[in-house]
């Protein structure tokens, strides 16, 4: 299997990262691995409810496969990587406690997390501790309140992906949009992005709050208005699955497009619970038209580890370790060196070459060009996907 590559290191040692919220960097444990012990990476993953367990399983499979590949290739200059996995269960407080524990255990860096609100809590705590965190999957634009060098992210920011989704809706003839919502920073952010983007382009966005409306009441609201599309800004499986079933079986709404920009239909549980009712529901996924040669090899390996084809989240997990492994090879396991290495990297990932830059309005380092698709499950075969729109 090919290994990631990087650009040459900068000619002079990087300066310590800036810490806006701190007057001086926190004390740092002795760099791991210098005595022959493993270099530890902390992994934050949702593995129990109410977390999205299937997403967590895919993320963990990618992380673990990449660690195995690094170690099979000789580790980091002969020192193995060790993954310390902690279940966040979609609970921000549990994630913060896990970050504190992993910090005490001397991990060189943190990896992972799928849920945006949880990743935000973990990133804020990692920033305060001076612990590098490469976030795999969460998309909320502001993972921290202030700019930081300690946190970087692979997934695209929510604003970029959801604006692409809004373009898809407009190009498909949908401008009268309803959104079914739940209370959450993530859903509120998505609603704001959609409104800010669609309204100047002649669209309307009507919110239907599921705290006050049953699925039947939502169907009545949709039937009584000129809405042509309903977007699911709600959790899975509940209330997303009951709402989809109610709409699909309401003859008044036969022409209504159901959309899920947050990606609920990506995982096999969606098809299992909904069958053909869950098809033709466009969602965002972060895959290219073609995987890289490394990605093709990883895809083959992941299919042996997972009970269904790997999702984009599994590839995000693998890419996370590929990036961190290259940092460790070229900059060593010292936390401050890791935190200052983000803008100097160029790594061959499973989906494209990965670099990190500062992006306006994004407080963390960001991969600026991750692939984005709008896809859906094929009504003729709900286990297969169709690509509807791509970057």
From TrEMBL:
<dbReference type="InterPro" id="IPR051010">
    <property type="entry name" value="BCAA_transport"/>
</dbReference>
<feature type="region of interest" description="Disordered">
    <location>
        <begin position="363"/>
        <end position="391"/>
    </location>
</feature>
<keyword id="KW-0732">Signal</keyword>
<keyword id="KW-0813">Transport</keyword>
<dbReference type="InterPro" id="IPR028081">
    <property type="entry name" value="Leu-bd"/>
</dbReference>
<feature type="region of interest" description="Disordered">
    <location>
        <begin position="1"/>
        <end position="37"/>
    </location>
</feature>
<dbReference type="GO" id="GO:0006865">
    <property type="term" value="P:amino acid transport"/>
</dbReference>
<feature type="domain" description="Leucine-binding protein">
    <location>
        <begin position="39"/>
        <end position="359"/>
    </location>
</feature>
<dbReference type="InterPro" id="IPR000709">
    <property type="entry name" value="Leu_Ile_Val-bd"/>
</dbReference>
<feature type="compositionally biased region" description="Pro residues">
    <location>
        <begin position="7"/>
        <end position="19"/>
    </location>
</feature>
<keyword id="KW-0029">Amino-acid transport</keyword>
<protein>
    <submittedName>
        <fullName>Amino acid ABC transporter substrate-binding protein</fullName>
    </submittedName>
</protein>
<dbReference type="InterPro" id="IPR028082">
    <property type="entry name" value="Peripla_BP_I"/>
</dbReference>
<comment type="similarity">
    <text>Belongs to the leucine-binding protein family.</text>
</comment>
<dbReference type="Pfam" id="PF13458">
    <property type="entry name" value="Peripla_BP_6"/>
</dbReference>
């Amino acid at each position: 299997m090919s290994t990631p590559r990087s650009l040459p290191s900068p000619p002079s040692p990087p300066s310590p990262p800036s810490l806006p919220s701190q007057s001086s960097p926190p004390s740092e444990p002795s760099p791991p691995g210098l005595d022959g012990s493993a270099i530890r990476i902390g992994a934050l993953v949702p593995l129990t409810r109410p977390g999205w367990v299937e997403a967590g399983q895919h993320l963990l499979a990618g992380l673990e496969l990449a660690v195995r590949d690094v170690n099979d290739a000789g580790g980091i200059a002969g020192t193995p990587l060790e993954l310390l996995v902690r279940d966040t269960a979609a609970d921000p407080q549990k994630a913060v406690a896990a970050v504190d524990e992993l910090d005490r255990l001397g991990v060189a860096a943190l990896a992972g997390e799928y849920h945006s609100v949880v990743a935000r809590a973990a990133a804020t705590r990692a920033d305060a501790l001076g612990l590098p965190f490469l976030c795999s999957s969460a998309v909320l634009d502001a993972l921290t309140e202030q700019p930081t060098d300690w946190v970087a992210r692979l997934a695209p920011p929510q604003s970029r992906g959801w604006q692409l989704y809004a373009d898809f809706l407009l190009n498909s003839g949908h401008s009268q949009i309803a959104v079914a919502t739940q209370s959450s920073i993530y859903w509120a952010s998505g609603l704001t992005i959609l409104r800010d983007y669609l309204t100047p382009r002649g669209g309307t966005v009507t919110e239907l709050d599921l705290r006050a409306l049953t699925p039947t009441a939502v169907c009545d609201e949709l039937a009584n208005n000129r809405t042509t599309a309903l977007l699911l800004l709600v959790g899975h499986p509940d209330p997303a699955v009951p709402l989809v079933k109610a709409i699909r079986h309401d003859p008044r709404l036969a022409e209504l497009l159901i959309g899920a920009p947050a990606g609920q239909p990506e995982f096999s549980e969606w098809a299992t619970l909904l069958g053909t009712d869950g098809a033709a529901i466009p969602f965002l996924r972060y895959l290219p038209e073609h995987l890289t040669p490394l990605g093709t090899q990883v895809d083959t390996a992941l299919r042996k580890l997972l009970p269904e084809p790997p999702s984009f989240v599994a590839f995000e997990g693998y890419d996370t370790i590929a990036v961190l492994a290259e940092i460790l090879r070229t900059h060593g396991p010292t936390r401050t060196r890791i935190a200052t290495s983000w803008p100097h990297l160029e790594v061959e990932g499973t989906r494209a070459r990965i670099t990190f830059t500062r992006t306006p309005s994004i407080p963390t380092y960001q991969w600026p060009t991750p692939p984005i698709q709008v896809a859906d499950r094929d009504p003729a075969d709900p286990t297969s996907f169709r690509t509807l729109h791509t970057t």
